[in-house]
Amino acid sequence: MNLDLGPIIRSITRQRGAFALVVLEIASGFAIIACILVASSWYLHIGHTTSGHREEDLVDVAIVSAAASSDPELARTGAIERAQIDTATIQRTPGVLAVAPLSASLIDDHWSFPTRFTTPVDGEREAFGWSVYTSPAAGEVLGLHPIDGGLPQGREAQDAVVITRCLRDDLFPGPGSVVGRSLLDEGGAPARIAGVVEDVVMRIPFLKHARCAAFRFSHFPDDREAHYLVRTAAGQRAAVVTALTGSLGPSRPDRLVKVRPFSARAGKAHSISSGIVVILSIMAVTVGVVALLGALAVSSFLVAERTRQIGIRRALGATRQDVMRYFLVENALAVAAGTVLGIIATLVLYLMMKRLFHGLVLDWRHLAITAALLWVDATLAALVPARRAADIPPHVASRGS
After folding, report:
1. Which candidate, 354, 107, 384, 358, places its Cα nearest to that of 229?
2. Could you tell me which residues come within 8 angstroms of residue 30 by beta carbon, excluding any fewer than 6 positions away?
3. What is the torsion angle, in degrees rounded to the nearest 10, for the CA atoms of residue 237, residue 243, residue 244 and residue 247?
């Protein structure tokens, strides 16, 4: 049988409803699977986000204490005294190079909202990020790398702020140094920008402005929870963790002490992203199975509807291989049309998703993988009906319609 596209196009025209159903099924499956791949890649990237803190020599210390007094001023005074004692205890530990209290950290799983920063002198520009209250030792602990200005020391640190590159680019998009400009954040006094450092992640990386931070060097500890990051000498982290566990004392009902090696993967962000990727993978497999069963059902319907037509072709000399090729080519046309519509739908959905997920990227490999999966899926679904069609004997042509 000469397998030109004419007979196939005429058959599609006669069964355009069933053909359109296959095309729409392929298109919807393509869009769903492609978007799942894009979202999974984003969550994997977020789950493996590096903090930029040189984690291999960092130790995280969290101390939760019962409030010393119901009076806010007395509670705050007690918190300051406890923070000074804890800082001194940590600093005396062998192997500790520096310790800095922090009001925010990547592995602090407490949910919070970003701060709105403004530049009152420079046209009232605004951006969002995180105010991190710490001490001047944060530069050494976090490994902050100045790219403009420097890290303030001594008394000048009280009224100064150091911002990350991310926050600088949002607030001051133009060229030139920003050192000396004013910065205002909600809940804080105006501060002079003393320097700009490379980006570091200070909050849960799911959040849009995780790398936009402003470091203030006037730390006011919480009256219930104190959070410290400790920089250890190279190769001394395990020994420091053991020593701090002993020097800070065991946990008790009114004081909970947690000492652990710092890791960006220790927080909930990593476990949440891993769990979401598993869920999305299950959804992708489910969509693939549904597409397989749907294509199989429609192909079986088309074979049943064309039994006499296939018998006539067999009587005219078509071989079993010709009949199989006929249905596989028809299936390939449906897959091709569905893939084109699926790519268009994916692009539309991607533009919508990009508004919700910062840093979302649609890679051409996502489209290629999806197209290959659906092509194999649809071909496997068409093989069984095509083989059944090939087995139709020529004498079927003599039956009435």
Report:
1. 107
2. 338, 339, 341, 342, 343, 345, 346, 370, 371, 374
3. -170
Residues in the chain: 401
Q: Is residue 63 a contact partner of residue 223, using CB atoms and an 8 Å limit?
A: no
| Residues facing residue 96 across a β-bridge | 232
Quick check: 330 and 18 in contact, CB under 8 A? no
Task: State the pLDDT at residue 5.
Answer: 60
Q: Are 107 and 266 in contact (CB under 8 A)?
A: yes
CA distance 298 to 296: 6
Query: Which residues touch 98 (CB under 8 Å, ≥6 apart)?
Result: 91, 137, 140, 141, 230, 231
pLDDT at 93: 92
Q: What is the mean pLDDT of the chain?
A: 79
- According to the model, what pLDDT value does residue 137 have? 86
**pTM over 0.70, yes/no:** no
Residue 352, both tokens: 């919508």
Burial class from Cβ neighbours inside 10 Å (0-12, 13-18, 19+) for residue 283 reads middle
Choose the weakest-confidence range: 54-58, 137-141, 289-293, 373-377: 289-293
End-to-end C-alpha distance for the chain, whole angstroms? 23
* Residue 142, token pair as written in the block: 């976090």
- Residue 247, SS3 per DSSP: helix
- pLDDT category, 186, cuts 50, 70, 90? confident
Mean pLDDT along residues 201-211: 72
Please state, in angstroms and as integers, the Cα–Cα distance from residue 90 to each residue in 17, 232, 260, following that order. 74, 11, 13
Are the CB atoms for 99 and 219 separated by under 8 Å? no
3-state secondary structure of 73: helix
Q: Encode burial over 233-242: b for 16+ CB neighbours within 10 A, e otherwise.
A: eeebbeebbe
Q: Name the token pair of 24.
A: 């729409």
Give the CA-trace dihedral at 24, 30, 31, 36, to 10 degrees.
150
What was the pLDDT predicted at 395?
A: 60
pLDDT at 212 over 70: yes
Buried b vs exposed e over 82-100: b needs ≥16 C-beta within 10 Å?
Answer: bbeebbebbeebebbbbbb
**pLDDT of 291:** 76
CB within 8 A of 335, min separation 6: which ones? 26, 374, 375, 378, 379
